[in-house]
């Protein structure tokens, strides 16, 4: 789980330390912020919409006097409920004595919330998190300790969580529980700490313990005691971390891009947990003709999805570049336009959606940023769960866009009874298996560097594929071009003979996406045409394809992948290729020249 940051500490000047810790976690989310302390035996809560700096200045957190020695804080990236003061963490129970900061997504919160309301609990937010303090409150009322009440709450909840719990009834203790979302504990000379990542702890300690799934930590100033969620004691295993603060923020990776590529399996898993209510609402709007629109990488996600929709359901869905939308389409009455944008702020995409609305279309937004212009503009939206992406190159957000659209497509197909039940559930099963396939590919990415080493000084490259992987090819070419400044073009392999092949000469690099599917025979034909003119072939192939290993100069093998999911898996080695070429050329892949993460001009 990549969204939101938690920081807790038991040390002198806790407010200043928490403010500093949250600032280091700001890259995990920054639409709202909050802190809870114990001061004079009472629980004090402060929270607000917006970023950390103005919040810290307004409250004077950095200068708060000593005397406050325990607290928790949270910086949020909204997933459930709009980014507003009420939804900011920490959240309280009915007595106002228990505060909880949470990072994760709770799957069964609606049913638990309904039951809690029936038992008389009052809720102040629309978040999933708020059920946790109320469940703990019930445990305490039944005589459980804070730790046991938190563990029992965690057992009742399905979903991902890293939580920090503070209670004025136990004023020297922070209780933490971890499942799927990260949580580290640090012990230093001046106190004990918990945080969403090591970076936040670096100024205070290098002695770190990574909490494991379904473990509960009871932290006091002297350090933590750990148990499993079932109450079995666990011997704490501390390690010494030798990172500087910058490395820690990048999780030990030299660049954010590499870190974000490695986060792809978890980002996919989180996106596959999208609340079905959102997907069903969007899928019921998919009537008339459906258009998909986006820019850059987001357009490639649209292109891939148009192939998937069309192949699986014979649905004619048209992908359109956002920058071309208003010049191409004039009457959109009764139609649906799906706008895809990581940032939710891309001017071209917003322009296309405004045009679509003015011409009578319904608009669905797919974005990674809940509080963005696209969510405000859309009739309904789906929020991908990629978490903040710092590298300018879109990586994890591309993969999450693809699976969000796959989910939407499968929901739409089942709503419209387009597929027999058995087929639909098989496709959902395949979709749920894709994070593990991506994980396997990421485990083999070291093999890409020597290939990049062979080709990094080339001037130009073609990326070629057929069918749905034309989108993969275009995405691979865009990544290489934007990061390494090498000229690169991605296009359908069958088009080479209509012009592009005239550039091919000895040593020209052709990257083929060549899965073992119905297009393989034709792709081999295209490879041979290129080879005959002296091209060097780097092919991404299906594991064990001996024939292609003989034909190509270099290969990267990926496990067998269902065709509609090809771009999710085959794009990953191409991201790595672009990354390594850029690094070998001495460039910073996180900050390519002339580009911005969010392009807010047309
Ligand atoms: O935020 P958006 O998804 O709307 O951004 C669209 C493009 O600007 C973006 O995908 C761009 O192409 C990336 N830098 C590619 O890596």
List keywords for this structure.
single chain, 602 residues, alpha/beta, Glutamine Phosphoribosylpyrophosphate, subunit 1, domain 1, Rossmann fold, 8-stranded antiparallel sheet, 21 helices, globular, binds 5-amino-5-deoxy-1-O-phosphono-D-mannitol
What's the gist of this structure?
With 602 residues, this protein is an alpha/beta fold. It is built from 21 helices and 25 strands. The longest helix is centred in the last third of the chain and has 20 residues, at 396-415.
Describe this structure in words.
- By secondary structure, the chain is an alpha/beta fold.
- The protein has 3 domains: 5-250, Glutamine Phosphoribosylpyrophosphate, subunit 1, domain 1 (4-Layer Sandwich), CATH 3.60.20; 264-432, 3-Layer(aba) Sandwich (Rossmann fold), CATH 3.40.50; 442-584, Rossmann fold (3-Layer(aba) Sandwich), CATH 3.40.50.
- 38% of the residues lie in helices and 23% in strands.
- Helix 9 crosses helix 14 (396-415) and helix 10 runs parallel beside helix 14 (396-415).
- The longest helix is centred in the C-terminal third of the chain and has 20 residues, at 396-415.
- The mean pLDDT is 92.
- The structure holds 5-amino-5-deoxy-1-O-phosphono-D-mannitol.
- Residues 295-298, 341-343, 346, 349, 392-394, 478, 482, 595, 598-599 line the site of 5-amino-5-deoxy-1-O-phosphono-D-mannitol.
């Amino acid at each position: 789980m990549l969204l939101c940051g938690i920081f807790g500490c038991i040390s002198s000047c806790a407010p200043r330390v928490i403010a500093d810790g949250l600032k280091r976690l700001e890259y995990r989310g920054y639409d709202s912020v909050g802190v809870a302390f114990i001061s004079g035996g009472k629980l004090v809560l402060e929270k607000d919409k917006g970023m950390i700096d103005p919040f810290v200045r307004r409250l004077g957190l950095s200068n708060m006097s000593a005397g406050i020695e325990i607290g928790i804080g949270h910086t949020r990236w909204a997933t459930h409920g709009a980014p507003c003061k009420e939804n900011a963490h920490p959240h309280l129970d009915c007595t106002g004595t228990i505060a909880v900061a949470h990072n994760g997504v709770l799957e069964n919160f609606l049913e638990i919330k309904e039951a809690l309301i029936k038992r008389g609990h009052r809720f102040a937010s629309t978040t999933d998190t708020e059920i946790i303090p109320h469940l703990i409150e019930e445990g305490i009322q039944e005589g459980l300790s804070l730790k046991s009440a938190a563990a029992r709450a965690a057992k009742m909840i399905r979903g991902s969580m890293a939580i920090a719990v503070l209670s004025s009834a136990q004023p020297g203790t922070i209780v933490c529980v971890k499942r799927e979302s990260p949580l580290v504990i640090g012990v230093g000379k001046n106190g004990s700490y918990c945080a969403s990542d090591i970076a936040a702890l670096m100024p205070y300690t290098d002695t770190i313990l990574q909490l494991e799934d379904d473990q509960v930590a009871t932290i006091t100033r002297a350090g933590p005691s750990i148990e499993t969620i079932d109450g079995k004691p666990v011997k704490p295993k501390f390690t010494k971390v030798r990172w500087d603060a910058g490395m820690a923020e990048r999780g030990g990776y030299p660049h954010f891009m590499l870190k974000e590529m490695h986060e792809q399996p978890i980002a996919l898993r989180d996106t596959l947990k999208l609340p079905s209510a959102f997907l069903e609402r969007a899928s019921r709007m998919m009537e008339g003709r459906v258009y998909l629109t986006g820019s850059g990488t987001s357009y490639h996600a649209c292109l891939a999805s148009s192939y998937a929709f069309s192949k699986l359901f014979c649905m004619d869905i048209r992908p359109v570049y956002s920058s071309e939308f208003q010049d191409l389409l004039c009457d959109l009455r009764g139609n649906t336009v799906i706008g895809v944008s990581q940032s939710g702020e891309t001017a071209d995409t917003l322009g296309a959606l405004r045009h679509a609305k003015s011409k009578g279309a319904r608009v669905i937004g797919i974005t990674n940023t809940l509080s963005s212009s696209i969510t405000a503009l859309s009739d309904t939206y789906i929020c991908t769960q990629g978490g903040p992406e710092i590298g300018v190159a879109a990586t994890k957000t591309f993969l999450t866009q693809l699976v969000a659209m796959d989910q939407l497509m499968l929901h739409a197909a089942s709503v419209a009874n387009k597929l027999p039940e058995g087929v639909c559930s098989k496709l959902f099963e395949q979709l749920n298996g894709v994070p593990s396939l991506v994980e396997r590919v990421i485990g083999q990415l070291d093999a890409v560097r020597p290939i990049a080493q062979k080709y990094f000084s080339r001037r130009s490259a073609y990326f070629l594929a057929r069918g749905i992987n034309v989108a993969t090819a275009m995405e691979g070419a865009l990544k290489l071009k934007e990061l390494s400044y090498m000229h690169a073009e991605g296009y359908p392999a069958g088009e080479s003979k209509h012009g592009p092949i005239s550039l091919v000469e000895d040593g020209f690099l052709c990257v083929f996406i060549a899965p073992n599917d119905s297009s393989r025979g034709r792709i081999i034909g295209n490879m041979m045409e290129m080879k005959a003119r002296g091209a060097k072939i780097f092919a991404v192939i299906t594991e064990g394809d001996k024939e292609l290993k003989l034909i190509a100069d270099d290969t990267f093998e990926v496990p067998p992948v269902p065709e509609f999911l090809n771009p999710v898996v085959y794009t990953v080695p191409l991201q790595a290729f672009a990354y390594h070429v850029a690094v070998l050329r001495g460039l910073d892949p996180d900050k390519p020249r002339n580009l911005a993460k969010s392009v807010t001009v047309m």
